Backbone:
């Protein structure tokens, strides 16, 4: 039924201009549609991320968006840290943590929040 159709992530935010700056300037995503007070769409790889205004922004306590970035993880984390992004630290069994990155053997992951508190996730998967 849906297996042959693309999906995209959608994230609720309170302030569209603040979100535009964060997603376009801080994360480097390419705006590809709309804006103003309505939803914005950003290109991220071969997919799209829709950001829309909602009073419920940031209330999800789970991952909102995940990027599998492979071996680029540490360099992306370092770049984002230089832009002021703070990374979350979670106590998880079997994980070590350094420089914003959790390590689970060969698998690595990093979590951070957008300005509305949505949890964004980078990992070493492809």
Residues:
């Amino acid at each position: 039924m849906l297996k042959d159709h693309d999906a995209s992530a959608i994230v609720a935010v309170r302030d569209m201009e603040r979100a535009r700056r964060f997603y376009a300037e801080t994360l480097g995503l390419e705006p590809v549609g709309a804006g103003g007070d309505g939803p914005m769409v950003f290109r991220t790889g071969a997919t799209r991320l829709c950001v829309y205004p909602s009073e419920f922004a940031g209330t999800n306590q789970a991952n909102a968006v995940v990027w599998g970035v492979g071996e680029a993880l540490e360099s992306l984390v370092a770049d984002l840290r230089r832009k002021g992004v703070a990374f979350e630290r979670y106590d998880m069994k079997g994980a070590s943590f350094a420089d914003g990155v959790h390590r689970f053997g060969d698998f690595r992951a990093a979590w951070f929040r957008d300005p509305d508190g949505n949890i964004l996730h980078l990992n070493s998967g492809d």
